Amino acid sequence: MLLSDRDLVSEIKAGKLALEPFEPALIQPSSIDVRLDRHFRVFNNHLYTHIDPSVQQDDLTSEVEVPEGEPFVLHPGEFVLASTLEVISLGDQLAGRLEGKSSLGRLGLLTHSTAGFIDPGFSGHVTLELSNVANLPITLWPGMKIGQLCIFRLSSPSEHPYGAEVYGSRYQGQRGPTPSRSWRNWRVWPTQ
Ligand SMILES: Nc1ccn([C@H]2C[C@H](O)[C@@H](COP(=O)(O)OP(=O)(O)OP(=O)(O)O)O2)c(=O)n1
After folding, report:
1. Domain of residue 143, residue span
2. Residue 136 C-alpha to ligand 1 middle, in angstroms?
3. Does the ipTM exceed 0.85?
């Protein structure tokens, strides 16, 4: 079930959902707007011939911090990682989906390219996969509303929420835009 504004407020009051820092004005009818932080990760295309998800390519991205009062310029066709200003924490019976903002979508800015799911139990800054599909550069201003978070209540509490030992939970507690962490078990064959 998708939570309404009043349910979002009750979950925040009950401590089952947290956004830090939190601004009540960011609550929408059934979502909460999230803001852009000042840290970005750009791809070092000059260092690699290809991206291989099966290995850890440590120098694949570099962090860029935008100075106070300045924007990050995202050029057409570019793909960068950024992160929410807010640390987002979900209890074991809530899951989230990061969605774009229509006004930014109409300009050609994609907020997440594919992965928008936030697991129950997750806590950390959410990594944004930003790309510009317009024909002109787009300026990204730290602090601007960059997306919205929709929260769903699970049919029962998760038995092994994100962060539990049972999973890798590679992004639990992540700070800032976090590059892909390679899987140790990236291929799982059928068990006979
Ligand atoms: N745009 C996104 C989407 C997700 N996450 C965070 C919240 C999720 O709970 C966590 C893991 O997301 P996935 O399960 O989609 O990622 P993986 O399966 O690759 O990682 P893991 O093996 O840790 O589950 O990453 C994020 O920071 N930014």
Report:
1. 5-153
2. 30
3. yes
